[in-house]
Specification:
- The chain has two helices and four strands, in the order ββββαα.
- The chain is of the alpha+beta class.
- The protein folds into two domains: about 100 residues, no CATH class; about 30 residues.
- The longest helix has about 40 residues.
- The termini are far apart.
Length: about 140
């Protein structure tokens, strides 16, 4: 393998990761990964795997990964929202110009309910922001 291996590997899973310590400095010159912890981002929890004792270096690396992962997920979320706006525009164009009656029948109720729900949430949140804004 080119380059140096990281000390830790994080196998991403729903709301967190399994954390492995990477070892390539053994006699067989094979890469070994030893699970040391499980991370739950939504609970801000680090649980040692089995009867492991995590070192301060382990905890620092895991906390750093957690911060980086949260930042990445936040960026992905806002990117997904921008893509949704594009998709709504594409959907409107499709409905106006190319959709058959059968296709519209298939999706109209679901789209209308989702858009109604979204509109309600956005209007409430905007009203909350406006009512909290300083008056000047």
């Amino acid at each position: 393998m080119a380059g140096e291996l990281p000390e830790y590997y994080f196998r991403v899973r729903d709301n967190g990761a399994a954390v492995f310590r990477v070892d390539a400095e053994n006699r067989q010159r094979r890469i070994e990964m030893d699970q040391i912890a499980v991370v739950h981002l939504n609970r801000d929890e680090i649980r040692p795997h089995g009867d492991r004792d995590l070192t301060e270096a382990d905890l620092a690396a895991i906390r750093s990964w957690m911060a980086e992962r949260r930042a990445l997920l936040e960026l992905r979320t806002i990117d997904d929202i921008h893509r949704t706006v594009d998709q709504l525009n594409t959907t409107a164009q499709w409905a106006q110009s190319r959709a058959s009656d059968e296709e519209l029948d298939e999706v109209t109720e679901a789209l209308l309910l989702a858009m109604h729900d979204l509109r309600g949430v956005l209007v409430r949140k905007k009203a909350d922001r406006l009512s909290q804004a300083p008056r000047g």
